[in-house]
Design a protein that fits this description.
Order of helices and strands: HHHHHHHHEEHEEHHHE
Shape: elongated
Strand content: 5-15%
Strand order of the largest sheet: 2-3-4
Helix content: 40-55%
Number of helices: 12
């Protein structure tokens, strides 16, 4: 008798990949329909659910790529990256990496970065909340200890770096027909911060120094180290200005002082 795991693997092979050998081993009793037809109905329902869920997560990618091409990409993606989640609405984080190597998308190399932006928006929407930075506590830190602080960003904060103008592509395709022709892919690069504000998700363009600084903080770098990285990326980087702006915007929400042994 086959184990449950073997049955599940066989069903996946038959349903997603059309494996006829696996189908015959399942012993499906199909009634008036043959087993292949019955499993085909299931396959269509599965892919239909994935197409619907991923179209909701990646509406601009779908518009830029075209509906039929996007649907085919979804089927290839599902086969290459089977879901590890019970909730299909939390599935699809590998889409950008998939598109960067997907042959039909080669003529639109910016699609992968648009997907990164749309996934960042999706994740920012469902991220946890966080209280604002405790300014009195920060003010009590001795000046000579400030450089050793490590700051935390809001849980919704996501970064997107692209050599294409993905923010403009995204903006131009919020409604109506696909309009990438109005935004030339060589118009410039983007360094973006995606975060959730009280009134919804916000997308901001960052200066190079600002981007390097915030990414360093997100990676738990010390404040003095993050400042050096910001200055190295942009000579005009101003720590006080950037820190004040992102504390006020609640991009930066917490800090911790170094332990005595660090």
């Amino acid at each position: 008798m086959r184990s449950l795991r073997e049955l599940q693997r066989g069903f996946t092979a038959a349903a997603l990949f059309g494996d006829t050998a696996a189908l015959s081993e399942l012993g499906i009793v199909a009634g008036t329909l043959d087993a292949a037809t019955r499993i085909g109905v299931y396959r269509n329902n599965v892919f239909g659910n994935y197409r619907q869920a991923l179209a909701a997560t990646y509406p601009v990618v779908r518009r830029l790529f075209g509906g039929a091409s996007f649907d085919l990409a979804v089927e290839a993606f599902v086969r290459a990256h089977p879901s590890l989640h019970g909730d299909v609405n939390r599935y699809g984080g590998d889409m950008a990496r998939f598109l960067s190597n997907y042959p039909p998308a080669r003529e639109r190399p910016y699609l992968a970065d648009v997907a990164r932006l749309e996934w960042a928006i999706d994740q920012a929407n469902i991220a946890a909340d966080a209280p604002a930075l405790d300014l009195p506590a920060l003010g009590a830190v001795p000046v000579d200890a400030l450089g050793g602080l490590r700051f935390a960003l809001h849980p919704s904060a996501q970064f997107v770096k692209s050599r294409y103008p993905v923010f403009r592509l995204w903006q131009a395709n919020q409604s109506g027909d696909a309009s990438e022709d109005h935004v030339a892919p060589n118009e410039g690069a983007d360094l973006l911060l995606v975060r959730r504000a009280p009134d919804g998700v916000v997308i901001e363009r960052l200066a190079p120094g600002e981007h390097a600084f915030l990414v360093a903080l997100a990676r738990s770098r010390r404040l003095d180290d993050a400042e050096q990285r910001g200055a190295a990326a942009e000579s005009a980087f101003d720590l006080a200005v950037v820190l004040k702006r992102h504390v006020a915007a609640q991009t930066i929400v917490a800090f911790r002082a170094p332990s005595p042994l660090s």
